[in-house]
Amino acid sequence: MATDIVMPQLGESIAEGTVVKWLIPPGGMVEKDQPLLEVETEKVALDIPSPATGVLREVLVQEGATVPVGTLLARLEHEPVEAVMNRVGGVGVRTRRAASAGEPHYSPAVKQVARDHAVDLSDVTGTGEGGRITKKDVMDAAAKRRTSGQSHSVSPTPLAAEEQLVPLTQMRATIAERMVLSRRMSAHVATFFEADCSGIEQFRTGRSFTYLPFVISAVTQALKDVPIVNACWRDQGIVIRKALHIGIAVAIEDGLLVPVIRHADRKGLTQIATEVADLAQRARSKRLAPEEVLDGTFTITNHGGFGSLFSTPIINQPQAAILGVGAVQKRAVVIHDAIAIRPMCYLSLSFDHRIIDGATADRFMSIVKHHLETSNWDTRL
């Protein structure tokens, strides 16, 4: 008896995924719920657990291949190891049929990249499973066209002895696409404020809170007062979203993920802190569920965790703004005409000037600052 391993549906808007790495070699034993392979989509990277205990009989999709949801990836054999190995030893890995003739199927992600880069898909040669066109194929075609357009005699510059070429992962390619697209779509403007964290510092004494839950709580209060910041742009107009789903940027080994705390305004500091820690840990161990990175309405990036003071983060589309949080440092400040030492933090807001005016952005930031400096945190536990 065998179990088919297929590319899972990793979210409503996800049409394909990339097999990054098989964590069990062909012929290897795997336990039920043990990580079997690592899959990456344009939104999330995660380990796929084995649906049963058995032997990985045959692998049909190799590492690096991008295939549609539902594609047969491998087969898991439930027979004893000796029987499986004896039978599989003389059997080659099955070759999957190429896509049937007729109208070619392009995934939504491929179509979007083709539109963004003005690439005619009929001119692109697919390197994916069954000759399918992948996003990398489209980006390679766009890069080739740009190169040939500059000069027909230009050839790739060879690497020097001390240089190394690192191939793009799907996540890195997607991050690059989205960052460039965001800068092209939104009218980016930034404003900076400074907050005194003395009250937070005092409240944290004897408690295990980081600064981030306090920022999230303050942001939700400000979004209620200035709802236009919790909006997105559409050709028909500006959509103000009532739900406050706060995305938290998490740096992982090879990129960035933004898991979402849903209805953050309904949660106290303790619950927010618990969810932040849990989401961050599972993001780094690639155990996030796809739906946990969807539907964010506002994003916070805590670049201060690495010691950074200032940042102008790029807006996470289709949102209207993103808040950057710098490191909390003790600095000399003037309070009532006297110099004092206070734990201070720089806050930055990158916002879409099509949606938010400068005065509105500054009002939002002044409210965030006010809540950080004056809130009675005991009432928000």
UniProtKB/TrEMBL annotation:
Cofactor(s), by name: (R)-lipoate
SUPFAM superfamilies: CoA-dependent acyltransferases, Peripheral subunit-binding domain of 2-oxo acid dehydrogenase complex, Single hybrid motif
Keyword Acyltransferase part of the UniProt annotation: yes
EC nos: 2.3.1.-
Keywords attached to this entry: Acyltransferase, Lipoyl, Transferase
Composition skew (Basic and acidic residues), residue ranges: 132-143
Region (Disordered): 122-157
Residues of the Peripheral subunit-binding (PSBD) domain: 105-142
Subunit structure: Forms a 24-polypeptide structural core with octahedral symmetry.
GO MF, one annotated term: dihydrolipoamide branched chain acyltransferase activity
Protein name: Dihydrolipoamide acetyltransferase component of pyruvate dehydrogenase complex
Domain of life where this protein originates: Bacteria
InterPro entries in the cross-refs: 2-oxoA_DH_lipoyl-BS (IPR003016), 2-oxoacid_DH_actylTfrase (IPR001078), 2-oxoacid_DH_E2_comp (IPR050743), Biotin_lipoyl (IPR000089), CAT-like_dom_sf (IPR023213), E3-bd_dom_sf (IPR036625), PSBD (IPR004167), Single_hybrid_motif (IPR011053)
Assigned protein family: Belongs to the 2-oxoacid dehydrogenase family.
EC category name: transferase
Gene3D superfamilies named in the record: 2.40.50.100, Chloramphenicol acetyltransferase-like domain (3.30.559.10), E3-binding domain (4.10.320.10)
Domain Lipoyl-binding as annotated: residue spans: 2-77
